Amino acid sequence: MNRKGAIEFLRDNPIGTNLKKNLGPVDEAIKYLQDAGYGEWMAAEIRDQAAKQPALFYLEDHFRKGENRLVFEIMFAVSDSCVTLDKMQANLLVVPIQHGILNGIDTVALDEKMKSVNWQTDYPVAHVNTLPKIAGIYDEIKKLGDGPDPYGKKVAEMLGVKHWSWTPISDYSSYWQDKKADYLTIMEFHGLPRVADAYNHLLTLANGHQHNFFKQIHQNNMNTQNLDFLKNSLLNLGFGDKLNAALEKQMEDKAPQFALTAQHEFNQKKIDYTLNFKAGDNQEMYFFNNYDASISKGKNEQIKQTFYINKGNGVTAKEAFNLMEGRAVNKQLFNKDGEKYTAWLVLDNEKLTDKGNKEIKRFTENYGFDLELTLNGIGIKEMDDPKTKEDLFRSLKKGNAQQITVERDGQEQRYFISANPQFKTVDVLDHQMKKIKREELLKPDQKQQSNKEKQSTGQNEKKKKSREHKVSA
Q1: Which residue from 360, 359, 357 is spatially nearest to 343, judged by alpha carbons?
Q2: Residue range 319-331: average pLDDT?
Q3: What is the reported pLDDT for 291?
Q4: Sheet of 425-429, strand order
Q5: Are strands 22-25 and 402-408 parallel, antiparallel or unpaired?
Q6: Residue 439 and residue 453 in contact, taking contact as beta carbons nearer than 8 Å
Q7: Exposure string (b/e) for 116-127, b if CB count within 10 Å is 16 or more?
Q8: Rounded to whole angstroms, how far apart are CA atoms 147 and 187?
């Protein structure tokens, strides 16, 4: 509260009336101060100063009110052995810390340690590093402020303000002087109030100020966590950190909803993304709901698909490209009860949703597609080494067309393969990414066996149809 506001408050409240300014002779002034609740030590100080007959002298009186601190800064004038109040300012420091375990520090325990130090007398500036107790407190304050939890920095600041205000530490540091101002409620009096009355009025003002102040701290902390969560979501979904500045700007501007754009290139094909964000109730948090992906197939042809995000999880940018190229992606999903399951996802070219999106087919483990069983026994060299085998499976599950090596007639031949869970097989592609028959991967004896199986299957089908025809006749 500024000077004008304090004067107006005093004018409209009882404490602002009948305040004594002329305190009378020294003994009478001392009795008045003691009756009003001020420190008894002031009696000797006033007598000493009055004996010197200075024009003005300054005294500070400090009070602990629970976790709060009340400080009176009083300017007295003495003339003809009479004491007059020249100026009076009351300062109430309220630092309501929300304690907890932050960045590995128990802030309640740290608060108690700082209380046990008399920072006026036990703080020798030149020898601080030789005092284990004070050095230990400094180390914990630093760890608290430098840790990953952003609220830890705020609590470290609060503890410093609470215990170091009006001490040699704050006297030598403008940083703590500046920070103290955020937690102070100040009032100037034009007469001498009772200590209890001054405290109650200041506390009333401070409670309103602190409520708004900590509401803002809480909001800022939520905004920081929300921004960090969205940044991590973008990173995990394959959009990197290039959108972070634009994301932060839109959130600062409190836009009710906004979109960010990005473009990636895979296999010499460009894909455009529009990422859609929307504010929640009261605009306290933002949500990354979905993104639209678009691939150009020619001058006038585009394929589009919207992919939805659930709590930062969903189809990544590269996986979206692979799905739109017609390949399958293996993802961990959640059912309505929140239980995890894995499934192969494929875009259905025949069925569209009401919004024009291609529906997504899901092939779970119960469907019976086993990628490892499909690739075993056909001579893929990458299957022989555990590391390359793991890399191959990981790439295929992301929907990539992955290069493999097979040996035929003493020569290595390279193909690309991609998972095809619907038909429980893999698609085989040449170096131009054109599909070829899967039999190209098979060894000659395997091809012969495959042909026999096909012929046997064909003959069985003919016999079956013949029997059905006779029965029908």
Answers
A1: 360
A2: 95
A3: 97
A4: 402-408, 411-420, 425-429, 435-436
A5: unpaired
A6: no
A7: ebebeeebeeee
A8: 37
**Helical axes 150-164 vs 195-236, angle rounded to 10°:** 160
- 439 vs 73 pLDDT, higher one: 73
The answer on pLDDT for 222 being more than 80 is: no
Would you place residue 192 in the very low, low, confident or very high pLDDT band (cuts 50, 70, 90)?
confident
Query: How many whole angstroms separate alpha carbon 360 and alpha carbon 363?
Result: 10
Cα angle, residue 113 at apex, residues 109 and 117 outer, rounded to 5°: 165
What is the phi/psi pair of residue 329, to 5°?
-130, 135
| Domain edges within the chain | 3-219, 242-366, 371-443, 444-473
pLDDT band, very low/low/confident/very high, at 465 (cuts 50, 70, 90): very low
Q: Which residues contact 260 (CB under 8 A, 6 or more apart)?
A: 243, 246, 247, 250, 274, 275, 277
Which one has a higher pLDDT value, 446 or 140? 140
B/e letters for 280-312, b = 16+ CB within 10 Å, e = fewer, are eeeeebbbbebbbbebeeeeeeebebbbebeee
DSSP class of residue 148 equals S
What letter would DSSP give residue 64? E
DSSP-derived letter for residue 67 is T
Mean pLDDT of the region 170-190: 81
Any idea what DSSP says for residue 400? -
Cβ–Cβ < 8 Å for 21, 190: yes
The pTM of the full predicted model, rounded to 2 decimals, is: 0.54
Q: Three-class SS of residue 328?
A: coil
* Mean pLDDT, residues 134-153: 88
What residue has token string 């197939």? Answer: 297
Q: Which residue has the higher pLDDT, 452 or 189?
A: 189
Average pLDDT score over residue span 212-224: 57
72's tokens: 């009176």
The CA-atom distances, in angstroms, between 139 and each of 150, 159, 166 are 18, 13, 22
Report the C-alpha dihedral over residues 331, 334, 339, 344, rounded to 10 degrees.
-30
